[in-house]
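Bumping my old thread because nobody answered last time. Still need a sequence for this structure:
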């Protein structure tokens, strides 16, 4: 802390500034490790469903079988959207992209909900669970409405990931596709004080409601510097076209100091542990779908980037290949990220409510002072 006569230090973008203690997740960028509530992300991704990980984030412990079954049923029960919301979504389906529709619909869900403005811990927990349950429905409904198709109602017999894929297509997905989608949700569920999560906590710190908080999160994630990386990766892979073009493409890009999308990370200085997990899934899924082209390009890019720059892929790189193998359109890459991150947002919102202090940083004014005021008729 600065002394009485000292100016506070300046940290552009809040880089390196610690604003809170947390038990939700640990991102060890130097060692390339990620923990949710003390559990290694590798163990959770390989052994847990998204519902199980969401329970862990919200309730601070892994559930037993009875607890998980009750939580899964609660999420399934709360998937449906009110009729007035679906009617509203139809009115703007053709005029908004999916992230815009998600942001608008999350906010609109507060209308007609008598509990939406309540901010007790239990009310916020229940509102958060309801929003987590509805995120996939909003994304799937908007995607179909924008295509001029009728919506597919949620299937109460399917789990979180399977139901999302089902609502997009109307077909029950195969087991491998479900496992890949579920793992991707787990890997994106939480990642400490990233931009959108910080925004959620700022909103909550004013004692605003959960709908406002998650609307903030969606709005921030919409920005291309945060949530749009997987989409940009696929644009790059499509530009490369074939494995034989990959080495020249990346070497030319490096010579021009052009960014290689999906490489490097603000926090991780080594291999992103989520990318390591998802790489195997992307490989297996691509092999099953009989399309290994992008994985072959990925192998070449990873070899060149590690050798030339000592930089490794992040989770967005292999997410893009997973989404492509699942047949998902590019526009859904960031909304899928939002679906997963909703659980982390709610966990952080609850933590902020529990031990709240208004987040109000300072700035350093560098403009003029004591300017002479000139009446309007005398101004040049």
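Sorry it took so long. Here it is:
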């Amino acid at each position: 802390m600065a002394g009485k006569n000292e100016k506070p230090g300046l940290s552009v973008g809040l880089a390196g500034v610690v604003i809170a203690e947390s038990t939700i997740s640990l991102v060890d960028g130097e060692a390339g490790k990620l923990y949710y509530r003390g559990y290694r992300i590798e163990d959770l991704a390989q052994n847990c469903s998204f519902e199980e990980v969401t329970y862990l984030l919200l309730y601070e412990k892994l559930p037993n079988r009875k607890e998980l079954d009750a939580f899964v049923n609660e999420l399934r029960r709360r998937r449906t959207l009110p009729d007035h919301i679906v009617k509203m979504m139809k009115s703007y389906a053709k005029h908004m992209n999916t992230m815009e529709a998600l942001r608008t619909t999350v906010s609109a869900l507060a209308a007609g909900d008598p509990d939406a403005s309540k901010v007790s811990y239990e009310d916020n927990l229940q509102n958060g669970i309801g929003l987590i349950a509805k995120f996939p429905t909003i994304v799937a409904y908007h995607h179909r409405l924008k295509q001029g198709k009728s919506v597919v109602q949620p299937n109460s017999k399917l789990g979180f990931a399977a139901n999302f894929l089902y609502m997009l297509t109307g077909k029950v997905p195969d087991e491998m596709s479900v496992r890949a989608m579920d793992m991707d949700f787990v890997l994106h569920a939480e990642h400490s004080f990233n931009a959108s999560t910080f925004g959620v906590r700022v909103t909550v710190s004013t004692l605003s409601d959960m709908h406002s908080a998650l609307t903030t999160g969606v709005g921030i994630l919409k920005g291309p510097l945060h949530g749009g990386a997987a989409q940009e990766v696929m644009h790059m892979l499509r530009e490369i076209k074939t494995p034989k073009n990959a080495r020249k493409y990346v070497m030319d890009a490096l010579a021009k100091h052009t960014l290689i999308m999906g490489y490097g990370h603000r926090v991780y200085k080594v291999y992103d542990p989520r990318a390591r997990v998802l790489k195997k899934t992307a490989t297996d899924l691509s092999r099953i779908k009989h399309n290994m082209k992008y994985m072959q390009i990925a192998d070449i890019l990873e070899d060149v980037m590690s050798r030339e720059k000592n930089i490794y892929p992040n989770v967005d790189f292999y997410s893009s290949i997973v989404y492509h193998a699942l047949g998902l359109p590019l526009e859904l890459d960031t909304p899928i990220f939002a679906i997963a991150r909703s659980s982390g947002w709610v966990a952080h919102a609850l933590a902020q409510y529990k031990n709240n202090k208004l987040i109000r940083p300072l700035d350093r004014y560098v403009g003029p002072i004591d300017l002479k005021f000139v009446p309007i008729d005398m101004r040049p």
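The longest strand covers residues 25-28. Let me know if any region looks off to you.
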